[in-house]
Amino acid sequence: MSTAQYEYILTARPEPGVALITLNRPKALNALSTPLFLELGKALGEADADAEVGAIVLTGSEKAFAAGADIKEMKDKEFSDVYKNNFLENWQTALTTIRKPIIAAVSGYALGGGCELALMCDIILASPTAKFGQPEIALGVIPGGGGSQRLTRAIGKSRAMELVLTGKQITAQQAESWGMVSRVVGEGEGEVVKEAVAMAKEIAVKGQIAVQAGKEAVNAAHELNLAEGLRFERRIFHGLFATKDQKEGMAAFAEKRKPNFTHS
Questions:
Q1: Winning range, highest mean pLDDT, from 68-82, 87-101, 218-232
Q2: What residues are annotated to the active site?
Q3: Is 14 helix (H, G, I), strand (E, B) or coil?
Q4: Cα–Cα distance measured from residue 259 to residue 130, given in angstroms and rounded to the nearest whole number
Q5: In terms of Cα–Cα distance, which of 80, 69, 76 is closest to 31?
Q6: Where are the domains positioned within the chain?
Q7: Keyword annotations for this protein (predicted)?
Q8: What pTM, to 2 d.p., does this model score?
Q9: Which class does domain 208-254 fall in?
Q10: DSSP assigned state of 143
Q11: Would 263 disulfide with which of 146, 208, 213, 240, CB 3.0-4.6 Å?
């Protein structure tokens, strides 16, 4: 994954099986724009299609994961334009169509579109410096990239309503206690990225088919009622018995050795 082809993001392979994507608009605090999301979608698609990649880490800078959407891009848009061209829809599909797990490593501001971007990821790790919020109400609008929906599913109606209607920010510690993030990592520059890469490496050594199936099953819990979700989970579980990785994983356990997954 070369960095030369991108203007607004950086890509790297910090560990075997791990793709790292870094938002790179430092002067704008990584403000999200359509050109950035087009690049992000391309990089994520490449990582998703790469057989060597098992998990993806998405991060920003120490100061800002992403401080929001680019207001300069939006301020003069008219209803007919945003409605006809389905503005922000491509922002959603950039992440939500990716089958491999995406871990958000959040430091500093994750506000508006930045908070929504983190919520689109599968796992969120937060630095103690992280601040989350949906401040769109102060601009005369509401979240448009899934904030009101994913936030409500993550933290409940009352808390989501408070954030959306007041525009207030919450700390990483509050976000953890509310169940919005997996955990707050230790202090120190770059620590959250190190933790996220370590987690991604741990996931990447697992069988990719089972990992993707696990992501699909957990995501289905948001869409299906309990009976349908349990049926869906069971069918995927049954289907994994057709894979070589299931045979290898269970044989390795019985033989008390490490499995050698071939992702097949």
A1: 218-232
A2: 69, 113, 116, 136
A3: strand
A4: 37
A5: 69
A6: 9-204, 208-254
A7: Fatty acid metabolism, Lipid metabolism, Lyase
A8: 0.94
A9: mainly alpha
A10: -
A11: 208
